[in-house]
Amino acid sequence: MRNYLVDMLMAGYNIQSCSNGKDALVIIKEFNPDLVISDIMMPEMSGDELCSAIKTSVEMSHIPVILLTALGDEKNILGGLEIGADAYITKPFSVGILKVTIKTYWQIVNCSVRSIIVSKIKKSIYCQLY
């Protein structure tokens, strides 16, 4: 799934990717992405734990988090949103809905979606799915 998303988004975005939440947290602190897409079920640190770490950190709390997961029951959706996820998309997912969700978060923060790379004038996505 991670490779599929990276391939799907790499034409328009600079993607940083890894397979677990622990590594993701290191990458997020280093690259300061403009958006994080994360699965919930991962080794070492779950997506819920990653989202909570992002949203409770003064340095990272502004970063929108999209949880993209197979856990689609109401309890898990509410849990993800309560810990601070900005969006919760269930698998199987619509590529169109994911792309519009990404675009919407940049419009909310008045960022351009045309060229996304880590720098002061361009933006990046961090994609972390197991």
Write the layout of secondary structure elements.
Blueprint: H1 2-9, E1 15-18, H2 21-31, E2 35-38, H3 47-55, E3 65-69, H4 74-82, E4 87-90, H5 95-108, E5 125-128
Parallel strand pairs: 1-5, 2-3, 2-5, 3-4
Compose a concise summary of this entry:
This protein has 130 residues and is of the alpha/beta class.
Poorly predicted ranges (pLDDT <50, ≥5 residues)? 112-122
The average pLDDT score comes to 82
State the major sheet: 5 strands, parallel
**Strands ordered across the widest β-sheet:** 1-5-2-3-4
- The total of helices stands at 5
Fold and architecture overview:
- The protein is of the alpha/beta class and 130 residues long.
- The chain is 39% helix and 16% strand.
- It is built from five helices and five strands, in the order αβαβαβαβαβ.
- Strands 1-5-2-3-4 form a five-stranded parallel sheet, with helices on both faces.
- Helix 2 runs parallel beside helix 3.
- The radius of gyration is 13 Å and the shape is globular.
- The N and C termini lie close together (7 Å).
Note the main attributes of this structure.
single chain; alpha/beta; 16% strand
